[in-house]
Amino acid sequence: MKKCCPIVSGGLNPVRLKPFIDVMGNVDFITTMGSGVHAHPEGTRSGAKALVQACDAYLQGIDIRDYAKNHRELAQAIEFFPEK
Predict the structure, then answer these.
(1) What's the pLDDT tens digit per position in 61-74?
(2) From CA 25, how far away is CA 28, in angstroms rounded?
(3) Domains of the chain: total
(4) Which residues does the chain have with pLDDT short of 50?
(5) Which of 6, 43, 50, 81 could link 13 by a cystine bridge, Cβ 3.0 to 4.6 Å?
(6) What are phi and psi of 32, to 5 degrees?
(7) What does the pLDDT read at residue 84?
């Protein structure tokens, strides 16, 4: 069987990233996080930064709320996007 790379989409945003990574067991996947990036209150660039920050927090074993204390884009995403 050929290897494949999973793709996640549909309602994902920086706040919802960790539970998905937990299910996958790693960060080796593609995300097509459209609204989770483009709907960020400060626009697409800040949304992309928030996504990277959420992933960095996960990789460092830091809760995103703690990580967000020093990362403005992630803090805004946490405030803007619902957890569920």
Answers:
(1) 999 999 999 999 99
(2) 9
(3) 1
(4) none
(5) 81
(6) -110, 60
(7) 67
Do the domain assignments include residue 3?
no
CA angle 7, 15, 18 (to 5 degrees): 60
Segments forming the whole domain that contains residue 17: 8-80
Return the amino acid letter for 41: P
The model carries a pTM of 0.86
Tokens of 43: 């626009």
- Round to whole Å and give the CA distance between 84 and 71: 22
On whether residue 15 sits in a domain, the answer given is yes
Using CA atoms, how far residue 8 sits from 27, 29, 38, in Å, is 11, 8, 16
Q: Is residue 1 part of a domain?
A: no
Strand (E) or helix (H) holding 45: helix 44-60
| Matching residue, tokens 């805004």 | 76
CB-based contacts of 6: which residues, under 8 Å, 6+ apart? Answer: 24, 29, 30
Neighbours of 53 (CB within 10 A): 22
